[in-house]
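Re: weekly structure request thread

Next one in the queue (415 aa):
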Amino acid sequence: MGDDYLFIMATPEEIKEGKTTDIYFIRTVKILEEDNLSNVVVNAEFTASGFPDNYPWAFLGGLRDVAKLLEGLPIDVDAMPEGSVFYKEDYYGVKEPVMVIRGPYGKFAIYETPVLGFLCMGSGVLTKTARLRKVAGDDVILISFGARRTHPAIAPFTAFYAYIGGCNAVSCVLSAEKFLNMAPAGTMPHSLIIIYSVVKGDQAEAWRAFDRVMPPEVPRIMLCDTYLDETTESVKAVEAVGPDRVWGVRLDTPGSRRGNFAAIVREVLWELRARGLKGKVFVSGGIDEDVIPELVKAGVSGFGIGSAIDNARIIDIAMDITAIFQNGQWVPCAKRGKFSGVKKVYRCPDCLTDAITLENEPKPKCPNCGGEMENILQPLIRNGKIVMEFPEPKEEREYVLKQLKKLDLNKRPWD
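Done, posted below.
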């Protein structure tokens, strides 16, 4: 390994050039070119091979980067709009395409690997965040704290899709400022408390310094678990800064403290109230779907979530050729276990049930509720030009949350 690199990571130019592909695609293209077959036009579908932990549904993420990657190639691409819910199979058990590429296989083969990377990871992060939002409810604050739990090159990517999936804000500065057009969110680290405790002789000086230096728009959330028990530090912090200035306290130990953390939350809130002090509780550290409901019931108003989002299981998506254009017509073809042919994906906007047909078949009625269905695969690229308009992140987030209200955490709409 030479010294002509800064970090072990691909540049955007290298990704665009297809250099992050798997070697067998390069070899395949070389073989096809040798036999003058690289311009064979195919219909290639992207379908989910599996969902993590038996999820009944997922949300599509990563499509923005896919569009940028494939821009300029002599291909047409149809896709579900980013942020759309999708399933492994439709109502009838047919594998469901979330995206379709039509064009000369040799022109896009090397991009299969990075396309899948964008879709699998983007969908995994978006889906996990949506599930966290579902169990937390509409009124609880969720902030993405995952920048320290993933590779810094993709921290903006994961924070972006955490917001789309339902987080209210993100701590990653670049993602917030460059891609989401919003202020980054966060509180304070233990290092601030420790330095002021040693140098100034009192941890309360750290809370006061935070309040003194930070601009008014930064919420006064005081970290209260460094030295003393959570209740003692919480009371001390609110008294030190002033109950009219403090939004609340952050407890960062539920993943490591033994005992009933919900009881600790109740105690903190009770003791603040008993003293006439205002303050909410914000919790971080080891937060996941299984602990959120109990902590919300105990009175937690917000969560900072890192590992559960940024280390989310990917959505396993694969690409398969399902038809080849030959002698003026599409010839159905697919490997075993797949469904051949060119397809349409219809969705009922009322109940979010999907039904798949072959391209020349009539539009069906919703098999679940009998309602009208809509073709959800929309033009993304036409002859290399991006034709789909991506909404602003806030609008896409609202689209996700609107669908989420109609979904059950453990089953599909028709189950």
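The longest helix spans residues 112-136. The chain has two domains: 12-124+313-404, 135-310.
Next request, please.
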